[in-house]
Amino acid sequence: MKNNTRLNRGGFLIDKPGGKYYKAFAHYLVKFLDAYKANGVPIWGLTMENEPLHSDPNYSFNSLGFTAELQRDFIKQDLGPILEEAGYGVNTTKLMIFDDNINQLLQWAQTILADRDAAKYISGT
After folding, report:
1. How far, CA to CA in Å, does 10 sit from each of 31, 35, 50, 65, 96?
2. Contacts of 111 (CB under 8 A, 6+ apart)
3. Are 67 and 5 in contact (CB under 8 A)?
4. pTM of the full structure
């Protein structure tokens, strides 16, 4: 599902938010939440991606890159509505943005939270 076809070494999801790969990733996150819930472990919150800045092709760990704009659009077009439809809306499951280094936190928060359609799904950072 990544443009570099590898689990590691950076890369982004193929296509753009609203497309089938972004929707598949959102549904995968719901399956993760469902599996824990089915085993008696409710999840109170999640970040949609750990360290989204790691899109560098030299990064040797499992990774998936996002820009602030991609994360914003993925949240409002795919992840937010799909979480809500599956029963994991803001009243039950907290969605947090930008799980990464603090030096870009303000820029990401401004980009994502300034968009009302994305911000309505976000509980924090």
Report:
1. 23, 27, 12, 6, 21
2. 68, 69, 72
3. no
4. 0.93
User: Quick one: how many helices (H) and strands (E) in the chain?
Assistant: 5, 2
Tell me, rounded to whole angstroms, the distance of Cα 118 from its chain centroid: 12
Residue 112 CA to residue 87 CA, distance in Å, equals 22
Q: What is the pLDDT along the chain (125 residues), one digit of tens a residue?
A: 998 888 888 889 999 999 999 999 999 999 999 999 999 999 999 998 888 887 778 888 888 889 999 999 999 999 999 999 999 999 999 999 998 888 889 999 999 999 999 999 999 99
Dist CA 108 CA 78 (whole Å): 18
